[in-house]
Amino acid sequence: MEKKTVNQQIIANDVLRYKKNKLASMLALLGLVFNCLYFMILYAFPRAEYTTIKIGVSVIITLIVLLTIFLSSEGVKGYNKKFSIVLLVVAAFQILRIFGYPLDGVRNNTLIGADSTHTVGYFGIYPKSSGMFFALMTIYLAASAGCLIASAVIGWIYAARLEKFQKQLDLGEVSIENAIIAVEAEEETAAALAATQAETVAEVKTEQPAEVVEVKKEQPIEAVAAEAEEAEKTVKPAQAKKPAQTKKTATNAKPKTSGTKSTKTANTDREVK
Fold it and tell me: How many Cα neighbours within 13 Å face the side chain of 67?
């Protein structure tokens, strides 16, 4: 990902004023879904321990948690930092809930049906032990807390970024109009540079001769070594024959020189006579 210039960052910050923080909102709603999966298990056990006033209080708390998460998801969508703090508090509460009914149920082995005829089913799964239900409930609560924390962090970061940018606008430290003009100039410069580079490459390709180059397939090391040995064997006999040919040439040339000298001597004697 290319790093944005200062002017591009100003425009990106300005876009936040007209764009919702959907990522933080979606994460908060995903945390709400995991919370629903948790209480679908908790309120399904047909035991006397789960039909007391404590369960009634738990239901009310669950409804409050669901409503709080939903309202907070809308708050972080609008870049409100206060709702990020609310989501962190709810996430901490979700973690604490693990030490309530889930842990107490696995210790007392009450996270199952009262007898074999009251086995609790969950999406086609019928666990036979409290440990399995405890694991599922713990996973859902931890996942809910994780999503809420991620939503809170992302919401806080973008809200702080937008708040800082708004202050800069109010103080006149940045100007959207000037940033747009600067970005357009940067884009024109980049386009001109790209066109120049393309022309240079085209000229270089035109100047080069149009030769067809055969690309050989890569050979294994053994084949290359064998070819090198054959080349050496071919060169050595050629070098051995070369001195003999030179010697023979020298021998053939010698009589010609002697004959030339004899002819010159005879001609000289005739002139003297």
Answer: 6
